[in-house]
Task: inverse folding
């Protein structure tokens, strides 16, 4: 269900923001020739939650997949691999389109990414590394196993 009232939308937005700030990794799903392909990626999100950024080498399958089809999703969750996760874990799927960040945009997103992942500086600054920005259209927020909220990012978000 879409986040309804303004208070509910604010609460869902804050839960998404908190999760994206606290978790270092996401599962990226891209596709090639109709087949899904998943990878674990380190990520960072912009303050307004409109973009999620991650780094990958241009010589990877995921980069090629995104070049052919920029539609992706990212799964971010706070599970602890316990049975209680079915009831207690929060999972967010960010759906959107990727583009390689270049120029001043890359510089700004690289600073954002490296604030969260300073240990990846050598990787991000290597010549073959692309900084990919996902422009998020919708966050799907799942809590308590079956409570689903859709957070659509439109001009008002």
Result:
């Amino acid at each position: 269900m879409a986040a309804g009232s303004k208070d509910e939308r604010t609460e869902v937005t804050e839960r998404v923001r908190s999760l994206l700030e606290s978790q270092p990794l996401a599962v990226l799903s891209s596709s090639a020739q109709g087949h899904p392909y998943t990878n674990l990626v380190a990520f960072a999100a912009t303050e307004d939650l409109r973009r999620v950024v991650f780094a990958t080498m241009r010589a990877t399958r995921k980069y090629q997949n995104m070049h052919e089809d920029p539609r992706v999703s990212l799964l971010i969750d706070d599970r602890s691999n316990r049975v209680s996760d079915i009831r207690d874990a929060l999972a967010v799927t960010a759906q959107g389109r990727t583009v390689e960040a270049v120029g001043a945009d890359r510089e700004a997103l690289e600073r954002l990414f490296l604030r969260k992942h300073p240990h990846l500086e050598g990787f991000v600054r290597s010549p073959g590394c692309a900084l990919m920005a996902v422009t998020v259209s919708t966050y799907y927020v799942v809590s308590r196993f079956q409570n689903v909220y859709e957070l659509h990012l439109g001009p008002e978000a």
Summary: The mean pLDDT is 91. The domain at 6-152 is CATH 2.30.110.10 (Pnp Oxidase; Chain A).
